[in-house]
């Protein structure tokens, strides 16, 4: 992906709205439980996210919908060659925890989260695999 193609996509209105909704809902859920494990007693572990500087957060329907919208919109903008939904989701969770820990206003957190997603998509990797279809003659080498 070229830098020229990324910049307009990073300012996508729908992506920014989903990111803002996700971060604010995530922060509200973290504050409602105050990070105390006793407040989540009896809840399914599938709906609680712990770890990171944000502590324990209950994943509500609002958070799941906002995160899903963010992930799907980002994957749509990145296309199939660069958009990996699991990686986008993990970036979102990591940035949400940082936001809860108090690393600035929501707009800065949204911008940083979107930037991280597009930087991850722009990364390149090399993979070398053996080619078993070709057999070199040791005498010829």
Could you characterize the architecture of this molecule?
The chain is mostly helical and 141 residues long. The protein has one domain. Helix content is 60%, strand content 3%. The protein is built from 5 helices and 2 strands, in the order H-H-E-E-H-H-H. The protein has a two-stranded antiparallel sheet with strand order 1-2. A hairpin with a 7-residue loop joins strand 1 and strand 2. The longest helix is centred in the middle third of the chain and has 22 residues, at 61-82. It is elongated, with a radius of gyration of 20 Å. The two termini are 40 Å apart. Residues 1-6 have low confidence and may be disordered.
Describe this protein with a few key phrases.
141 residues, mainly alpha, two-stranded antiparallel ribbon, 2 strands, 3% strand, disordered N terminus
Summary of the model, kept short:
The chain is 60% helix and 3% strand. The chain is built from five helices and two strands.
């Amino acid at each position: 992906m070229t830098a020229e193609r990324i910049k307009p996509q990073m300012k996508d209105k729908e992506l920014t709205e989903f990111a803002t909704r996700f971060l604010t809902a995530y922060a509200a859920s973290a504050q409602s439980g105050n990070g105390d494990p006793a407040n989540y007693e009896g809840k399914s572990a599938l709906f609680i996210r712990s770890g990171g500087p944000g502590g324990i957060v209950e994943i509500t329907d609002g958070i799941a919908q906002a995160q899903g919208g963010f992930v799907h919109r980002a994957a749509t903008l990145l296309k199939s060659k660069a958009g990996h939904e699991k990686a986008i989701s993990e970036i979102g969770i990591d940035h949400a925890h940082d936001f809860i820990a108090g690393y600035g206003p929501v707009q800065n957190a949204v911008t940083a989260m979107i930037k991280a997603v597009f930087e991850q998509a722009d990364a390149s990797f090399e993979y070398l695999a053996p080619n078993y279809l070709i057999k070199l003659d040791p005498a010829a080498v």
